TrEMBL record:
Residues 1-18 have a biased composition (Low complexity). Gene3D superfamilies: Tetratricopeptide repeat domain. GO terms for molecular function: RNA binding. It comes from the Eukaryota. Keywords: Repeat. The keyword Repeat applies. InterPro entries: PPR_At4g14850-like_plant, PPR_rpt, TPR-like_helical_dom_sf. PROSITE patterns: PPR. Transmembrane segments: none annotated. This is Pentatricopeptide repeat-containing protein.
């Protein structure tokens, strides 16, 4: 395989400055590998991004080549003495309170370093500030300044770390890298990129830790274009063989959906670690390539002989859940028990998600009771599991017993109540969230709109609609689609059509037109639903999903459009929605209403899973065509079906 080189990347990135494109703000999405630099534990408190500065867009690839040889990169704290307990021979008070000379001796330097270690170990901010005050009396020393920067960053004091950095007369690559990493991990990605450009323009060459730091910023805001430039610079400076840098590049490309780059980088790595394998496995799982994930897992053990960690197991369980591979998931569970991960919190949380999709409520409850350690994710997973199994009261009981709650737990309960048709209870919960000042997200408002649609109350729908518009959430696509759906359910078809016509043409309209088709179908206007479906299909501007297919199949059954129903059937087969439970049930009903019971039975037989709606549709079809014996035969099989034994 050819080595990945700058020629395989966009040529404009090697010779021209980066375009003036500001960073987008996205939530953190990737946990990269952990070289000594990235192991700093920084504060997660959100900090608003500053406006991009003009110097940020300096050319990455300077035409002046540096004649200085690259210094061997050093971890920030690894060159110092290991952290030792506070000993009585440390002159702590005299060190801080006594006026010192400007000369820094080696023992004095070690004392300062050890005090900074202690401040980080015990979270003692005042000790770090006291050491800082004493250091100000001494001569400028990068070694001590860098240690102080790292200490402040690990204590979550990015502002103080930046002040120390700006006070250094000649910051080196370690100083810059520490601050780039600190900004990248504190929701200040734009400042991290600016500082990287500033380091380059000052003539300081980045090392492998610098690349990991700036790539972390790119990953958190999905800045693929800048990532391409960083990749080319990595190749130019010879750092592509560094496993930390390659892992960070794979993480960026994986988050941005560039699977081919991930696989090419992974295949050309001369050396891999467990993070390399975990990264590529997680990327293929995100791309729904579940079998490929299991193949990579086997290759990891066969080629490099790595022992899996909790991240590997959690990812493989996610693949088992997504692929509905029940036996594979149970094998992974057994393997986790065998190698001693039975008490791992992340693995157990993933197991709850797996058994929620591929098991029974007994499996989920037994696992939950065995867990000695639980967090908010564990409790929230149980709420979702109970709701999916239709055990609403048990889900509410779990919510009430939670030792701590966040908005995700509230949203899980709210969505579960809507899913189970409990519109009134969902609205009561929403009012409680408003009173308790719980954070309201897009997901919260979408759920409460759905709850209002379930109740089909005109006045209430207008109140909820006004509340959402008042707080400025009306421009969100998902919320607008939910509002349109609510209007159609509450008899406000004129408002629904007005929202539909005002939808911006430059935005994806799949959700909104699907809601409109469903609205026409529910409002007794099947001709309008079919016309809209044909219009959007002919334009080719939207993607048909399983919800739209289900609605149109229902309309075909109502009108007796057998030929069109067959065409929709073919479209579902071509687009991969044939095995969706809702689409399958709609096909059974459509064929039964159109008089084609043979096709209805065939669809029923090829469905991978059934529910009560599947069998009821088949029974209703037989009864419609006066086939009582066949209806009774389906009824007799229902008691033995696995899907009704939860």
């Amino acid at each position: 395989m050819a080595v990945l080189s700058p020629s395989s990347l966009p040529q404009s990135l090697l010779s021209s400055p980066r375009p003036q494109t500001p960073f987008r703000t996205h939530p953190p999405l990737y946990h990269c590998s952990s070289p000594p630099l990235s192991s700093l534990s920084l504060s997660k408190t959100p900090i608003s991004l500053s406006k991009p500065k003009s110097h940020r867009h300096h050319l990455l690839f300077s035409t002046t080549s540096s004649t200085q040889s690259l210094q061997t990169p050093r971890p920030f704290l690894s060159t110092h003495k290991p952290i030792q307990p506070l000993q009585t021979h440390f002159p702590t008070e005299s060190l801080i309170n006594t006026s010192l000379s400007s000369t820094i001796t080696a023992p004095l330097l070690d004392d300062y370093i050890n005090l900074l270690h202690l401040s980080v170990r015990y979270g003692d901010v005042q000790l770090a500030k006291a050491v800082h005050a004493s250091i100000l009396k001494l001569q400028d020393d990068n070694h001590l300044g860098n240690a102080l920067i790292v200490a402040y960053l690990r204590l979550g004091l990015v502002f103080f770390a930046h002040k120390v950095f700006e006070g250094l007369s000649c910051p080196d690559v370690v100083s810059y890298t520490a601050m780039i990493s600190g900004f990248a991990k504190s929701n200040r990605e734009d400042e991290a990129a600016n500082l990287f450009f500033r380091m380059r323009s000052s003539g300081i060459e980045p090392n492998e830790f610098s690349f990991v730091a700036v790539l972390t910023a790119c990953i958190r805001v999905l800045e693929l274009e800048l990532g391409f430039q960083i990749h080319a610079l990595v190749i130019k400076m010879g750092y592509l063989d560094c496993v930390f840098v390659a892992n960070a590049l794979m993480g960026l490309y994986g988050k941005c959906g560039s699977l081919d780059f991930v696989l090419q980088l992974f295949g050309e790595m001369p050396q891999r670690d467990i993070v390399s394998w975990n990264t590529v496995i997680s990327v293929v799982v995100r791309e729904l390539m579940y079998e490929r994930a299991f193949e990579l897992f086997r290759d990891m053990q066969r080629i490099d002989g790595f022992r899996v960690d909790q991240f590997t197991l959690s990812t493989l369980l996610a693949a088992s859940t997504g692929g509905l591979a029940r036996m594979v998931g149970k094998q992974i569970h057994a393997y986790a028990l065998k190698i001693g991960f039975d008490s791992s919190l992340s693995v157990n949380n993933a197991l709850i998600g797996f058994y929620r999709k591929c098991g029974s409520v007994k499996d989920v409850v037994a696992l939950f009771k065995r867990m000695s350690i639980k967090d908010v994710i564990t409790w929230t997973e149980m709420i979702v599991a109970y709701m999916e199994f239709g055990l609403v009261d048990m889900a509410v009981d779990i919510f009430d017993k939670m030792p701590e709650r966040n908005c995700v737990a509230y949203n899980a309960l709210l969505a579960g109540l809507c899913q189970n048709g409990q519109g009134s209870r969902a609205l009561d919960l929403f009012f409680r969230m408003v009173e308790e000042r719980v954070e309201l997200t897009d997901f919260t408002l979408t759920s409460v709109v759905n709850a209002c649609g379930l109740l089909m109350k005109l006045k209430l729908s207008k109140q909820i609609h006004g509340f959402i518009l008042k707080f400025g959430f009306g421009s969100n696509a998902c919320i607008e689609a939910a509002l349109l759906d609510m209007c159609t359910r509450c008899g406000r078809m004129a408002d629904a059509q007005k929202m539909f016509c005002q939808w911006p043409s430059d935005q994806n309209g799949s959700i909104i037109w699907t809601s409109m088709i469903c609205g026409f179908a529910r409002d007794g206007k099947p001709e309008e639903a079919i016309s809209l479906f044909h219009l959007k299909q002919s334009e080719g501007t939207v993607v048909v999903d399983e919800i739209a297919l289900t609605a149109v199949l229902g309309v075909c059954g109502t009108l007796g459009f057998h030929q069109m129903g067959e065409q929709i059937h073919c479209h579902a087969l071509k687009s991969g929605f044939l095995y969706d439970l809702g689409v399958g049930n709609a096909l059974i009903s459509m064929y039964a209403k159109c008089g084609n019971m043979d096709a209805a039975i065939k669809v029923f037989n090829i469905m991978p899973t059934h529910d009560i709606v599947s069998s009821n549709g088949l029974i209703a079809g037989h009864l419609l065509h006066r086939q009582g014996d066949k209806a009774l035969a389906v009824w007799s099989k229902m008691d033995n079906a696995d899907c009704f034994s939860q």
